């Protein structure tokens, strides 16, 4: 698909439209859930207003902000990985970050740790796995994309085996919570760290968008054009790993957001990273919010893990993109 040249007017209009869509979805997220309380009931008095305040401000608002942050982080990490690996099928979990986080979180749950300790263990697991991938991939001092990718796949498989082992050892009383965490769940997710980090990482990489456009043509081409590709690649790998680690520790493993959102927006908007990077952050939050709303109302009052919804919806959408639009490099 041929796309028009990026102009300031097109950039502003597109981001404004995506921001409006995110705001509308966030409003819906505050209105719908497993109970019938709505935001305008906050203005009243009496017991219903107090209950509405608890539901909307204490439950739905933090969950909405967490969904925006996690969706944005996953989509941003996916967009960076697809450029760095020059592979449109790369996703945030491809370097084993989620596998390490899973092992850390499941081990903490098995030892009876609290929520804060589980999140800390998940973060340490993600950091350890990504550090191990980089150390092993640099063993021959080449740091080639293929070696990094294969090392990440191997570490992810090993972490998957460890996670299965921990699940098989878990008592029945802990097993449900451990499985829910692995499926991805925004209930009780905290946004206080994830949302500022999303803004900070986006502000860090957005000024590098022109260099990313050159890098997407290949490291040799970028080097020939004068770009310092090695420093740029390691910086972006760090940003993608940090974004993935925070997303996983906040809400567990949520698939397909980091794969489909950058891929679909590249088809719709083109390859220019000046537009693509903020667009994927906004759209990632919107898509995860829509999935979370569905998870809350589909079988209300029972709530489903949002990772199940993203997987059920993500697979047919991705297959449709492949069948009708092809793979865009």
Explain the layout of strands and helices.
Blueprint: H1 8-31, H2 47-84, H3 97-110, H4 115-137, H5 145-169, H6 172-183, H7 194-205, H8 209-215, H9 219-224, H10 229-251, H11 257-269, H12 273-297, H13 306-324
Helix pairs in contact: 1-2, 1-12, 2-7, 2-10, 2-11, 2-12, 3-4, 3-5, 3-6, 3-10, 4-5, 4-10, 7-10, 11-12, 12-13
Pfam family, one: FecCD
Subcellular location: Cell membrane
Membrane topology: Multi-pass membrane protein
- CATH class reads Mainly Alpha
Whole-number mean pLDDT: 83
Q: Give the CATH topology.
A: ABC transporter involved in vitamin B12 uptake, BtuC
Give the number of DSSP strands: 0
The total of helices stands at: 13
Annotated CATH architecture: Orthogonal Bundle
CATH superfamily: ABC transporter involved in vitamin B12 uptake, BtuC
Strand content bin: under 5%
The separation of the N and C termini measures 12 Å
Q: Note poorly predicted spans.
A: none
| Proportion of residues in helical segments | over 70%
Largest sheet: none
Q: Number of domains in the coordinates?
A: 1
**Cα Rg:** 20 Å
Family: Belongs to the binding-protein-dependent transport system permease family. FecCD subfamily.
Organism: Iodobacter ciconiae
GO cellular component, one term: plasma membrane
Pfam family, one: FecCD
Characterization of this structure:
The chain is an all-alpha fold and 329 residues long. The chain has one domain: ABC transporter involved in vitamin B12 uptake, BtuC. It has 13 helices and no strands. It has helices at residues 8-31, 47-84, 97-110, 115-137, 145-169, 172-183, 194-205, 209-215, 219-224, 229-251, 257-269, 273-297, 306-324. The longest helix is centred in the first third of the chain and has 38 residues, at 47-84. The termini are close together. The model has no long low-confidence stretch (mean pLDDT 83).
